Amino acid sequence: MVIRVFIASSSGFVAIKKKQQDVVRFLEANKIEFEEVDITMSEEQRQWMYKNIPPEKKPAQGNPLPPQIFNGDRYCGDYDSFFESKESNTVFSFLGLKSQLASKAEP
């Protein structure tokens, strides 16, 4: 499974851009394979994202804002959930991945 980060490349909101960059930089820095999915370029991908976010995770009003993070088809969470997992050092669990610490050990 590949981590998919749903982003909006043409967002006019600086806060959204910073959150998207934070997620992408973290994944790159930790060499976690991921794919960026730009919802501003594909209505089909935008609708897929909206449809696959669990109802209890959707905002009371409006649509969920990017970044939204999935592992394959499994919803991981939004930026706030990602940030919380980063702060508590549980990102790999949040993403549904095994910790890379074991794979980095040299024989």
Report on the architecture of this protein.
This protein is α+β, with helices and mostly antiparallel strands. It has a single domain, classed as Glutaredoxin. The chain has 5 helices and 4 strands; from the N terminus they run βαβαββααα. It is globular. Mean pLDDT is 91; it is low at 102-107.
Class by alpha and beta content: alpha+beta
Largest sheet: 4 strands, mixed
Total domain count: 1
- Proportion of residues in β-strands: 15-25%
Question: For the residues shown, what is the average pLDDT?
Answer: 91
Question: What is the gist of this entry?
Answer:
By secondary structure, the protein is α+β, with helices and mostly antiparallel strands.
Give the arrangement of secondary structure elements.
Elements: E1 3-7, H1 14-29, E2 34-38, H2 43-52, E3 68-71, E4 74-78, H3 79-87, H4 91-95, H5 101-104
Parallel strand pairs: 1-2
Antiparallel strand pairs: 1-3, 3-4
